[in-house]
TrEMBL record:
It comes from Vagococcus luciliae. Keywords: Cobalt, Lyase, Manganese. One of its GO terms (molecular function) is myo-inosose-2 dehydratase activity. Its EC number is 4.2.1.44. It catalyses: scyllo-inosose = 3D-3,5/4-trihydroxycyclohexane-1,2-dione + H2O. This is Inosose dehydratase. HAMAP family: IolE. Residues 33-280 form the Xylose isomerase-like TIM barrel domain. The keyword tRNA-binding does not apply.
Length: 294
């Protein structure tokens, strides 16, 4: 498998805030993805839940499923609850031909809370919670391995695994055969991390990549006004590659040098009424081609 380029549907309809893009249909979303030059998609809340039905829409458009988000609650709920939901998710993605499963721990997460400051109220796990998280992820990784799949952990703003130190700890305390990493440029820069350093440190564990850009002035507003993650999204803190502050050329140099194989997925949640998803998807595709030749 070489590098494949996909895009997430969250630019068309936001799963966390369904009012953003409620007017955009699933058919419009996948048609515009293909028209903009992408060959893969992640899964949104408007997508058919039946694998054969979903394939009937994706295959004529030359699209396949790269992965889909899974919310784990390993730190706050009994493992069996997460396991049961995970197996259904795993089996659906396996039926769609995906090789990786995006997992993010949502225990104590503030990312979905409209009024909670994303920086000031960021959760910190206790030692007991860290143990529950890492051991639980190893178990989920075993379940993924049963289907010749891998879990890729999504470090994320407003959660207990956001910073470089937290990512380092998670990787150090999980089994490399069972737990891999999703590398997200936007969340790293938003958090104040060095994306090059994180890539170099964990390149052997990275099996999925999100390309996301940041509008610097909007990021600063979130910090100075103690705003929430969701309000930041609505105000436009995220954008597509080539439209923000991140220089993707040195990041691409690391990815290429490392011989990365897998998906690179453009993911830039913003209000589609302000940022036409097709136009932004097309602009991102052209920018990525100019930087990577993909």
């Amino acid at each position: 498998m070489t590098i494949k380029l996909g895009i997430a549907p969250i630019a068309w309809t936001n799963d966390d805030m369904p009012e953003l893009g409620k007017e955009n249909t699933f058919e419009q979303c996948v048609s515009e993805m293909a028209l903009a030059g992408y060959t893969g998609t992640e899964i949104g809340n408007k997508y058919p839940k039946n694998p054969e039905e979903l394939k009937s829409f994706l295959e004529p458009r030359g699209l396949s499923v790269a992965s889909a988000w899974f919310s784990a609650f390993l730190t706050t709920k009994p493992f069996e609850e997460t396991k049961e939901a995970f197996m259904l998710h795993r089996d659906f993605l396996h039926a769609m031909g995906a090789k990786v499963i995006v997992v993010s721990e949502q225990g104590h997460s503030v990312q979905g809370q409209m009024e909670t400051p994303v920086f000031d109220k960021k959760p910190e796990f206790t030692e007991e919670e860290w143990e529950k998280l890492t051991s639980g992820l190893d178990k989920l990784g075993e379940l993924a391995n049963e289907k010749d799949m891998s879990i890729v952990y999504h470090h994320h703003m407003g959660t207990g695994v956001q910073t470089t130190d937290e990512i380092n700890r998670l990787m150090a305390e999980t089994d490399p055969k069972k737990v891999s990493l999703l590398y997200d440029t936007g969340h790293l820069v938003f958090s104040g991390e060095d994306p090059i350093e994180v890539y170099q440190t964990h390149k052997d564990r990275i099996k999925h990549i999100h390309f996301k850009d940041i509008r610097k002035e909007k990021m600063e507003e979130v910090k100075t006004s103690s705003s929430s993650f969701l309000k930041g999204v609505k105000e436009g803190v995220f954008t597509v590659p080539g439209d923000g502050m991140i220089d993707f050329a040195p990041i691409w140099k690391e990815i290429e040098k490392d011989g990365y194989e897998g998906w690179i997925v453009v993911e830039a949640e913003q209000d589609p009424a302000k940022a036409n998803p097709f136009i932004y998807a097309k602009n991102a595709r052209e920018y990525i081609k100019s930087v990577t030749k993909l």
